[in-house]
Amino acid sequence: MKADKDKCIACKRCFAYCPMGRIQRFVWHDRIPGRAYIEIDQEACTDCGMCLRANACLVNALYQPEERWPREVRGILSNPMTMFLGSQVPGRGTEEMKTNDVKGSFLPGEVGVGVELGRPGVGAYFRDVEIVAMALMGADCGYQLAMENPVTHFMSDKTTGKLRDDCLNEKATSAIIEGKCKLEKLPAVLKVLKEIADKVDTVFTVEVITKVTPEGEIPIKPVLENLGYWFSINSKNNMGLGEPAYNFYPQGK
Amino acid sequence: MTHSLHRRGSRETLSRDFVVLGCPATGVNKKGSAPKTQKFLSICYKHGPINLGDMKTGNIYNTTMDDILSRVTDGTIVQCTFDNREKIVALLKELKEDRPGISVIISGVTDVVQECMNEAGLGPIHSLEYSLGTWGRIEKLPDFMLLQTLTMCGHAMIAADLVGKLLRDVKRGRRTIAECVIEMAKCCTCGNYNLTRGEGLFREMLPLYMVHSLY
């Protein structure tokens, strides 16, 4: 995001809307004596477009230039109104468990593990995303990346989790690594994440997905309890109302 | 996409906080899903959500219900936020009888959601996603009080500075609390921000913020 120096009157109305915090500075206009405008720190800005959508600018000084690779990844992941063509899903992730009832993305015995870096309000550089992705792929825990996920798309080597070098210094409001592993490998995956928690310069949320059994048992719950991991009382729950229903138990259960 | 998962707060407030999503599946039922999604949205609307939207169009505080409905296309994911358990039960009962055909997801306190499903005659949850919390440099996060509000927008579009500004605006008499809550709802494009819960949290934060001048 940028501010047109010939329009901006440095009124500061847009400042409060920035999810990245105070990333603007005042600059004196070089041709108009006494006139100040704001400059948005392009390194800190994630091109999320929030200040523009807020209609906070009285003089229409804010504008989003069309960005080229690699900077364009900022807007792709940070602006919720942008759709990543690879996933065909609005936003920065995939359909994950939302459509598990019809797609069978996470079968019994499988666990979806997602790691979202940067939110809320911290942001994440892709160099940190790479640290997490390479740790997951480098460990012997059978972690399989979700191929339609935008971060996976930005990898130069999908077997190691290595991201393209030219996007490592780009920053997003948040970026999600999505994938799955076998239930028995969940402790190993979580151990990897625990070990790299102090190696990244941002925050990340961890989420785990499971198919609930027809009897209502949640297979990952005893695993998390036994390992002593905190998990929230609130969860995202698929109601199983989608059609046609995926047959999870072709042999009957 | 996990934007309704990581909401933080007490059991008391989260128990009155439900995000209902309607999501067609790419490669399965996405083609021709627009009428199904519109039908799902209309059913949800009938049951009185506090917020409703589609991330590509906006929510009912940014635009109109008619606009949201008319801009639904194949693949649109819609979201409705409810502040009342009884409405969820009634909604699920209707969705059970009149299935929209697309996947329906509810974010909320797990056992409360399961109770609602039981009361609606739906049986156990099909698939579930847990949040294991926030790891890494958590010292960079805002304090928990603020975090409860900020995490209601899963795309993290409600800025910490905005909440502070709005709190000070109320103290200076520039805005009402209701106006502030709507301002925050406008930032959360998808319609995930629960205005009822948001207002309660906002009132709790009011005494914690100071203004240097009333002008």
Explained architecture:
The complex is a heterodimer of chains A (253) and B (215). Chain A is an alpha+beta fold. Chain A has helices at 50-53, 72-78, 100-103, 126-138, 150-153, 186-196, 220-227; strands at residues 2-3, 24-28, 36-40, 62-63, 83-84, 89-90, 110-117, 124-125, 144-145, 155-157, 162-163, 171-172, 175-182, 203-211, 234-238. Chain A folds into 2 domains: 1-65, Alpha-Beta Plaits (2-Layer Sandwich); 80-227, no CATH class. Chain A has 7 helices and 15 strands. In chain A, α4 packs antiparallel against α6. The mean pLDDT of chain A is 94. Chain B has 215 residues and is α+β, with helices and mostly antiparallel strands. Chain B has helices at 11-14, 34-46, 65-70, 85-97, 110-119, 144-150, 160-171, 177-187, 195-205, and strands spanning 18-23, 51-54, 58-59, 78-82, 103-109, 127-136. In chain B, strands 3-2-4-1-5 form a 5-stranded antiparallel β-sheet. The interface between A and B is large, with 85 and 83 residues.
Number of helices of chain A: 7
Calculate the terminal CA-CA distance of chain B, rounded to whole Å. 42 Å
The greatest interface here is: A-B, 85 and 83 residues
Range of helix content of chain B: 40-55%
Q: Any idea of the CATH class of the largest domain in chain B?
A: Alpha Beta
How is the largest sheet of chain A built, in terms of strand order? 9-13-7-14
